[in-house]
Write a structure and sequence with these properties.
Layout lengths: L1 H22 L18 H20 L3 H5 L2 E8 L7 E2 L6 H5 L6 E14 L2 E13 L5 E16 L2 E11 L8
Parallel strand pairs: 1-6
Antiparallel strand pairs: 1-2, 3-4, 4-5, 5-6
Length: 176
Amino acid sequence: MKLSKLILTIAIGLFLLVTLESCNEKNTESKQTETVLPKISKEKFENEAWEMEKKYWAYAQKNDTVAYKKLWHNDFIGRPGNGDEFVNKSMVSNWIPELHSDPNIKFSYKLYRKVTNAIDDVVIVFYDVDTILTDKENNIVEKYSSAMLHTWRKYDDGWVILGGTSADKNQNIPKE
């Protein structure tokens, strides 16, 4: 009888030892896969993404569609505010040459940062932009405002836009 109690005690002890070891934090089988991110603050990530928005508009102002297109992820999908169509990377710069088609009209802009939110290596940026078209005497020919949203992701080689949308803030919405 004493031998069977000893065997039972050893068996329970081994069972508890195996159970505790499987719960040990060093056991990688039970842990979720974690992405190792650089030690960068949320605010710094958000500010970096905001600086990328400034580049986005500077490239548009310079009519530099080559640099502009490098800001976009190859699998980008978005919905510009000028229609119901969705666009991919191949179509993102189509609006820029039109802004520069009349040599008598100068394109400029003013940005209004609203909200940024960093989640790991992704930053969502909400902002407004005034698009301003002036003539040679610096008279405003056209001015309109848009609400913008871009989702940026930081990779080892830099930031790219994953998705986005915009809306014309001046448009009157018809009552139904």
